[in-house]
Amino acid sequence: MSLRSSLKLLGALGAVTLGAASLEACHNPRERPPAREYTEPSTHPATPPELRRLRASLQALPDPVEFDQRKMVLGRRLFHDTALSVDNTLSCASCHAINQGGTDRRRTSLGVRGQVGGINSPTVFNARYHFVQFWDGRAADLRAQAAGPVANPLEMGNTWPNVVATLSRSPDYVAAFRESYPSDGLTEANIRDAIAVYEEALVTPAPLDRFLRGDDRALNDEQREGAVLFESVGCTTCHNGIAVGGTSFQRMGAVRDYFALRGTPLTPEDAGRFNVTHREADRHFFKVPTLRNVAETGPWFHDGHATTLEDAVRTMAAVQLGRDLDAAQVQRIVAFLRAMTGTIPAYAALPTST
């Protein structure tokens, strides 16, 4: 279908505005990034208004990404080191594999001794641009996030004093920390900081970024039609900013009851933000995930319930926006989401000689 035909279809359907249902879905509007003006390049006078609004809602990744090279290399080694787990079997990369979209592609992750966790591992790519970390937002930033899995009995099952003692027996680690952190060397805080520096370097530029900078040719016709739908249906209400998400908490099932549709018993993890604040108003609220690299990070949602990207799109439109999309609409939106699959930086992988 051509872009013109797609726009006619949208005209018949009617564009969704940010009415009461959409506004109620925004749990905390003050946590949303401020609106910014977008000036359409003079070379694109015929760009549909939906795409102009899309460019105003999303932001391109910076180029280049700045980070401390020495700390990044140290953090990369720590990220892939199983010495951080109590039984020397798991590393950060076990749940956030660089060659699997920064995830483990499991419904829920495995911890030490084969324990099955209760929640899906989100991608580590572009996580630096999230306003908080974890699905329930319990960590303020990547440095705080790095503390959690190591000491979680269901994940790495270790203690930080034991980790520091273990790494301190390695002359290589001691020397590397002395070089990167000359004031205090190998400490828990510096281990977490080095891991965070590495994670902050995991930025994946995609065709979407070229489009956001004004290059209409960065997307093919189907992707442009999907972008129009993505904006018109109302997806940018929650998926906005530089990470196309990660800017707010939203209720899972803002319009329709997601958990009733899922048809399985509630789990402790389903409570979401409530588990942090213990406020009933926060029950079933989760941090909106990034859509960057979303085609590579299934299964989807906090519970890993959606097994195809098409299912994820269809479900989100229904329970968050009250829209029942047909197969053609879903396919075009999926095509647009694939334009968010980025290039993994060459330095992300651990050198085989390490």
Question: What can you see in these coordinates?
Answer:
The protein is an all-alpha fold and 354 residues long. It has 2 domains: 195 residues, Cytochrome Bc1 Complex, Chain D, domain 2, CATH 1.10.760; 134 residues, Orthogonal Bundle (Cytochrome Bc1 Complex, Chain D, domain 2), CATH 1.10.760.10. Helices cover 38% and strands 2% of the residues. It is built from 15 helices and 2 strands. A two-stranded antiparallel ribbon has the order 1-2. The longest helix has 13 residues. It starts with a helix and ends in a 16-residue tail after the last helix.
What's a quick, concise take on this entry?
This protein has 354 residues and is mostly helical. It contains 15 helices and 2 strands. The longest helix is centred in the middle third of the chain and has 13 residues, at 188-200.
> How many helices does DSSP assign?
15
Radius of gyration: 21 Å
Question: Roughly how much helix do the residues carry, as a percent range?
Answer: 25-40%
Give the averaged pLDDT, no decimals: 90
Proportion of β residues? under 5%
Strand segment count = 2
The helix/strand series, from N terminus to C terminus, equals HHHHHHHHHHHEHHEHH
CATH superfamily assignment of the largest domain? Cytochrome c-like domain
Residue windows where pLDDT falls under 50 for at least 5 positions: 1-45
Shape: globular
Measured distance between first and last alpha carbons:
50 Å
What's the arrangement of strands in the largest beta sheet? 1-2
Question: What would the CATH topology of the largest domain be?
Answer: Cytochrome Bc1 Complex, Chain D, domain 2
